[in-house]
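input
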Amino acid sequence: MPDMVAVKRTLRLVTASFATAAVLIVIVLAGIDLSEPPSPDLGDGAVLAVAVVGLIGLVAAALWYSRAGERPTPPARVQTGFIIRVAIAELGLLLGVMAIFLTGAVGPAIIGLGLFLVALLMLYLGLNRIPDS
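output
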């Protein structure tokens, strides 16, 4: 069974990797010319959808932060819970990336990236609140 120090170190690496990869993906996709978008008038709906899904991920991260370290939790459960919350927080970003291909608009991806990075920061800070023992 892994100890909490090793789990926290691994999750910090996962957080940094996700943040770096998300920024790079949005930068690369924003710079690619995808020619004519199939549905350019769906941009407003994509922004709204990304914002709603991104805020759900942000709420999941905020709950993690507020409850982190309140009671003793086994390292395996901390790791599983953290990864599930990262996946929930990432949904807004993934929807924003999909919106680039569907609408040609970069705005939804930028909004999804911003909400995802804030959620990752909250998860990281919540991870720091968990005691090592």
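quick obs: The helical segments are 4-31, 43-67, 75-103, 107-129.
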